[in-house]
User: Fold these one by one.
Assistant:
Number 1:
Amino acid sequence: MSETTDIRKTIRDKKVYYGADITLKMIKTGSAHEVFVASNCPERIKRDLRRNCQIANTKLNELEENNEELGNICKKPFSVSVLCY
């Protein structure tokens, strides 16, 4: 299954949180199970996510899609750089 299909299935079946701030908060509290990051997400944010996901043992997926494409996949009228569930 492709990552795009995984994201669509996740959005349909689970509670999803959008944005770097809420995602970092969810990782730090142990509430995030998996994190998806757009290809053009700022490197500073990617670095923070990698570090925190490694500490919390949370799966991090760095996507090939940019934030505009990720927003379309999520059926949002805005770009999405980071999401988690």
Note: The two ends are 18 Å apart (CA to CA).
Number 2:
Amino acid sequence: MNQPTQGAARRPSIREDAINLPNLLTMLRIALIPVVLWLLADGTPRANFWAAMAYIGTALTDLIDGYLARRWGQISVLGKFLDPLADKLLVMATLVFLAYLGRLPFLGVVAVIIMVGRELAITALRTIAMSEGLVMEAMRAGKDKTALQMVAILMLIVHQRYVINFGFYQTEFDFAGAGLVLLYLSLFFALKSGGEYFKLFVDAVDAKDDRLARAASEG
């Protein structure tokens, strides 16, 4: 009977993955989403401020959990599933709630609807690709889209106009207006990366079909 090799690496169980710090931070990010929405529902400048702080704290866990997972060698299958899910839930839930609260104009609502549809379509493509054993790497345009959405949402949460005084010059900064500009810009990258993902999926399926056809002809 073969004995296990002493010192051989053992794959952590799902339970062990669930309690490592990077994944706990990811789950905390998901748990904080209702807090952000609850503060947003108040609508007062004070509540907007605390909603923005909660949102920043939630977004920061994304940077921290990724860094810790790489630093401590705790990149896991569960983490690869939870991390993008948490990002999508944070972004989409906040955008949809902002639209529900009437903080977005008509074109902003349309942009949110398109973004939600895009996320659902890409998630479906990724699920199909995974079931077929295909790998779909993250696109640069997709990362740009997420970064723009994060900043846009923060500005839309603050929502107010604030006077900025440089001493020799004073001006107003419209957080809601700037947030909308970034939201529309993120829509461009959302559509661009969506097209790239679709092309990548089609190319991967074609390549797999070619491999299967060659294997069948050689066999």
Note: Strands lie at 161-165, 170-174.
Number 3:
Amino acid sequence: MSAGTSKWDPKPGDPEGKLLPFEEIKTEADLLPPGAAPGTVPTDLEQATGLERLEILGKMQGIDIFDMSPLPSDRLGTFENPIVVKSAGAEYQVGCTGSPADSHNVKWLVMDRKRPFERCPECGSVYRMDYIGQPDSHDDHHGEHHHHHPAHEAPKTMADFVKPEYWYR
């Protein structure tokens, strides 16, 4: 092999494979692997696609894409000082076990962009979701062939009937 080339570079006439670094991933198409050379066994990096590929590329850069570390349980969150979770998705589920940890059975709490605060009904700990995902784009709403679908409405709960003046701001 000559300087500046590697065994991963495509040979003349071969289709060019894509081994993009994590920073250059912009679309789902960027998560398609080049595959292994004929007659060889592919590595995880050559074979993985989609979220698995994104996770591998992130770990290679020291980034934990799916941060599954436990939330702080050394204190109870309050509205003034909530336990903050970051989410790239529009919705986030938190399993509260109390403070100290395992003080009660897991209570699953759901937060979303419209209702970023949630309070555990068992221990009263407050959680807040910080949305870190892509900002909404309204550019594609003006096309001629755009189909409008009714928005999904979450089921009503007692919290929906609390007067707005009692909401935390």
Note: The radius of gyration is 23 Å.
